[in-house]
Amino acid sequence: MIHRGQILVRDCGPSRKSYSSDAIGTEFRHDYALVGIAEVDEHRYPEHFVRGFLQNVETAGAHFRTTDHYEAFPIHPGSDLGCLVRENHWPRPDPLFGIGGGGILFRDCRMTAPCGRKIVLVLAAASLPTGQLLNHHIYDFHGDVEKDGSFTLENPVDTEIMFGESLNALLKLPLWGWGKEKVGFVSTMDLPTIDKCMRYEELNLLDIRTPEQDAELEAINKGEVGWIFRSSNIDETYQAYRREMLKIRPNPAWDGVMSQSEQDADSVIASKILKQLLAA
After folding, report:
1. How much is the average pLDDT of 92-110?
2. H helical segments located in the chain
3. What is the 3-state secondary structure (H, E, C) of 54-90?
């Protein structure tokens, strides 16, 4: 089950598409994209599958139950989680039935979790009655022990974030977690892609490489992950910036998290280095 979670709501405006060719009912509905984290049982909620859900009309508030819709979702190496909201694999309820719903998927991460559990990143897309959820609020997110697959959103808190932040950026802001200091994720790509990126950087930073390491680096560069680095590798200013940053601190782990204080310290360092480079 979903033991606890946090999910942020993005109101995407009036619904414009549905399974029905008739637009009746869409004027009373809005599309929502939701991102967040959840603590779940370790061997449940495999990633890369989208689960359908419908609003539970028997209870008041934001209560939802999962449906039989369970479909493998395309994996795009190098894509942050929020990019997947643009895909057309999300289930949508027919507005003629008057019930809100959508789809939810989970992506594994390496945030520390209690024994027997794991932390997952969450992305959902839904079509719901207008005003059902508050824009840019973070809700507590948890499952129902007695009703397998059902979940509830409650206790919304305004994040006061700047408008215009992308879905990808929202998970990287220090808004998440249950510790004394909230954290943001360095990357929300899938873990195999993150591992290849970290291996690429590790090999690329070596002053001397063996033939085997050169071959491994070349293989990564030619693969799907390689395009992530192609633009930055030919940008001399960016490469100079990276070299100066590495003199001060190691690269943050791609699968790690950063607190507000860590992000602020990084920003100060980055600003100083960029000013020096641009003034040279």
Report:
1. 83
2. 167-172, 191-204, 211-222, 227-233, 236-248, 260-279
3. EECCCCCCEEEEEEEEEEECCCCCCCCHHHHHHCCCC
pLDDT digits (tens, 9 = 90+) for 203-237: 988 889 999 999 999 999 888 788 888 877 778 88
Cβ–Cβ < 8 Å for 69, 54: no
pLDDT for 149-162, tens place per residue?
A: 789 999 999 988 87
Q: How does 105-142 read in b/e, with b if 16+ C-beta sit within 10 Å?
A: bbbbbebeeeeebbbbbbbbbbbbeeebbebbbbbebb
Give the integer Cα–Cα distance in Å for 55 and 51: 13
- Angle at the Cα of 9 from the Cα atoms of 33 and 135, rounded to 5 degrees: 115
Q: Considering only CA atoms, which of 175, 194, 160 is closest in space to residue 259?
A: 175
Per-residue tokens: 86: 């643009």
Tokens matching residue 46: 């495999």
Is this model's pTM higher than 0.85 or not? yes
The one-letter code for the residue type at 187 is S
pLDDT value, residue 147: 64
Helix 191-204 × helix 211-222 angle, to 10°: 140
pLDDT tens for each residue of 34-46: 999 999 999 888 8
Task: Give dist(CA 266, CA 248) in Å, integer.
Answer: 10
Angle at which helices 260-279 and 236-248 cross, to 10°? 130
In the chain, the largest separation of any two C-alpha atoms, in whole Å, equals: 66
